Amino acid sequence: MATSSSNGKAPSYELPWVEKYRPLKLDDVVGNAATIDRLKVIQEDGNCPHLLISGLPGIGKTTSVHCLAHALLGDAYKEGVLELNASDERGIDVVRNKIKSFAQKKVSLPPGRHKIIILDEADSMTGGAQQALRRTMEIYANTTRFCFACNQSNKIIDPIQSRCAILRYGKLSDEEVMKRLMEICDMEKVEHSKDGLAALVFTSEGDMRQAINNLQSTWTGLGFVSPDNVFKVCDQPHPVTIRAMLGACYKGDIDTAMEKLDEVWNLGYAAVDIVTTIFRVVKTMDSIPEAVKLEFIKEIGWTHMRILEGVSTVIQLGGLLSRLCKMHLSPKLFEVKT
Ligand SMILES: Nc1ncnc2c1ncn2[C@@H]1O[C@H](COP(=O)(O)OP(=O)(O)OP(=O)(O)O)[C@@H](O)[C@H]1O
Ligand SMILES: [Mg+2]
């Protein structure tokens, strides 16, 4: 396996770090401790029920299913596991032929273990194909277990949900993503600043895959992981500017706020990028009291909605800033100050 050289440039043949550092054991999967513990119990017990794992992208669903299958089947993984994901044809014919014939196949496995069919990205399977699985899951349950992974569990038909143990994965916390990034930085000898990693955590919003990918892009592209480099690579409005803009709004200083907005707008960011960053930044601003923050978030939400409806002009954002500044006039919210 290729490793990066210590002179600051990663060799071009290197594996993407998301794959290089994909955990191989459940113990190495970060976050969602309670859910992972349930999987570990299944791993020790050896009797895997039908599983349905749902959650946001890049938080370890596919990884956990593979770790579990490896732990359960060991050397027999190759024969004992059938993996189908969204890149494979998974219509009703595949369920009738491929899945059924795999379920009927005789394979020698460690005692007490079952064949496993992994249906990754199961939310993209058609309703018909899911219907066709219902009886198959029951008929072959003594030899074959199904593991579904999906982003939206509501796209999985109810009869399948009722046959499965449902596990939900939540967003990873900032500390969990940070810890993993630091481990990877140590292993790859990435030069970084603490703020740089914090910027990666901020931009990834609990998506470990995105955090690791952005880390690699920043390092290979710019040679140092600092906040400026990270925001350049991720192409997002710089939170420092947005923070200054919101700080000005809090003080009722519309001129500075508009100046900052122009600065960001002239860099070419879309209104939706700006408004999502405003929302994410305001949540982290300790200088704004809770009550004001809630009012700010309400206004930001309305503007976000209008932008999504298609009114994505700079005037829309200017209007938001003016409403935020106007709150300064509300004696109730600002009674300490006025
Ligand atoms: N909890 C985690 N612990 C450690 N690494 C993780 C974790 N989650 C994701 N990763 C990293 O991100 C990569 C992608 O994870 P994975 O394929 O499991 O995501 P997923 O939840 O299946 O996402 P999707 O819904 O897009 O399929 C992994 O290769 C791994 O490097
Ligand atoms: Mg996946």
UniProtKB/TrEMBL annotation:
SMART domains noted in UniProt: AAA
InterPro entries in alphabetical order: AAA+_ATPase (IPR003593), ATPase_AAA_core (IPR003959), DNA_pol3_clamp-load_cplx_C (IPR008921), DNA_Rep/Repair_Clamp_Loader (IPR050238), P-loop_NTPase (IPR027417), Rep_factorC_C (IPR013748), RFC_lid (IPR047854)
Stored Gene3D superfamilies: 1.10.8.60, 1.20.272.10, P-loop containing nucleotide triphosphate hydrolases (3.40.50.300)
GO cellular component annotations of the record: Ctf18 RFC-like complex; DNA replication factor C complex; Elg1 RFC-like complex; Rad17 RFC-like complex
Presence of the UniProt keyword Oxidoreductase in the record: no
Domain spans labelled AAA+ ATPase: 47-173
Intracellular or extracellular location(s): Nucleus
Entry's Gene Ontology BP terms: DNA repair; DNA strand elongation involved in DNA replication
PANTHER family linked to this entry: REPLICATION FACTOR C / DNA POLYMERASE III GAMMA-TAU SUBUNIT, REPLICATION FACTOR C SUBUNIT 2
Protein name, entry field: Replication factor C subunit 4
